[in-house]
Amino acid sequence: MADNIILGVKKEEDPSENRVSIVPKDIKSIINLGISVEVEENSGNKAGYTNKEYESSGAKIVKKLSNKVSIVTGLNAFYNKKSDFIKNSSVISLTDVRTDQEISKICENNNLSLFAMEFVPRIARAQKLDALSSQASIAGYRAGLLAATSLKKYLPLMMTAAGTIPPSSILVLGAGVAGLQAIATAKRLGADVTGYDIRLAAGEQIESLGAKFISDEIPEDTETSGGYAKEQSKDTQTSQLEFLKEYILKSDAVISTAAIPGRKAPILIEKSTVEQMKPGSVIVDISAPSGGNCECTILGESVDVNGTLVHGPKNLSSEMAYDASIVYSKNIFGLLEIMVTENKLEINLEDEIIDAMLVFQDGKKRIEA
Ligand code: NAD
Q: pLDDT tens, 107-128?
């Protein structure tokens, strides 16, 4: 019998990353695919999973992954460019390969095959693998909570013996996966919620959550065939800023999530608008890692601009690492099911999921990211 494939769970090296790429609950299913599992010691600690749980699920805890490992999993496996990459292995991870040339060099020098989790195609069959959606949904939920706890106000209407307090009004800009979850969370907490998106198709989804949809005069072709937004012309951007200003100034909190894949996030909130917001207002800019939707956003910081608190969170899903790891682990398992047949690694390039995700094969670039 051929030797088992060995999968290695890499301990995240980014000190601000709390998630782990595989959770103990999925180890048995992975073993059932004919794969043995090594887990770097304490990989799951920050997410709430102990070495013992991994061991009792059948994994081997190691100080460092052995060079027999042929599949390495991670959340951000290329964070440390000086890490010991296992030559000839396949790496499954979220990456910045689109923008970070050094990742390409590492793949070439170590003969790596790279399955980039951000490249999962948005087709029905690949939904189980869709890490961008699984993590964006958590980020949206967390942003709703952050807005709620940062406001010095109730979210719901409160009738008390001392008088009636009106509900807080929350505006969500961008109603993709994260935005819709932020809307749902703020609605559940009782806020008066309004949603906006450049894609008119998002209107129905916003309204189905019980929020108001606002729309300006936007051109008809705002959506790509893949369902993403297109970058807007300068004129449209200017009229958008004008249109949104009135709604932003009426809101207690704004959660902004607007993004264009592979591009800098569009500016939807100007500094001059933030300066005019009511004191005590809050902005949670989920798009901070891709440049931010607000001109005042600073990545990884919360800044006070004339009494308005502007949050630029770096990694909201990592703040909910236990559940974020569960869904990410399931996303990876979905890929393993496609990659492994009868205990063998089968890289079938005719499979459109593999074809879309395999950026490097044996050190050779096959997708111009
Ligand atoms: P995203 O993270 O790329 O962008 C977030 C939102 O920002 C999007 O709704 C986008 O329309 C919006 N946006 C961009 N520029 C804007 C601007 N200037 N003003 C206002 N809003 C702007 O998007 P996402 O969350 O990844 O989702 C994009 C689409 O893909 C959605 O329609 C979603 O339902 C769809 N989707 C499909 C699948 C699937 O079929 N498997 C999976 C996930 C998402």
A: 999 999 999 999 999 999 999 9
Nearest CA to ligand 1 atom 42: 122
Question: Which atom number of ligand 1 is nearest to the Cα of residue 132?
Answer: 26
CA 176 – CA 189 distance, rounded (Å): 20
- What six digits make up the tokens of 334? 């979905």
Q: Is 237 a catalytic residue?
A: no
CA of 235 from ligand 1 middle (Å) equals 21
Question: Distance from the CA of 228 to the center of ligand 1, in angstroms?
Answer: 5
The rounded distance, in Å, linking the Cα atoms of 293 and 257 is 7
Q: Is 133 a catalytic residue?
A: yes
- Judge whether 228 counts as a catalytic residue: yes
> φ and ψ at 173, to 5 degrees?
-100, 120
Q: What is the pLDDT of residues 245-256, one digit of tens each?
A: 999 999 999 999
- Among protein residues, the one with the nearest Cα to ligand 1's atom 31 is 176
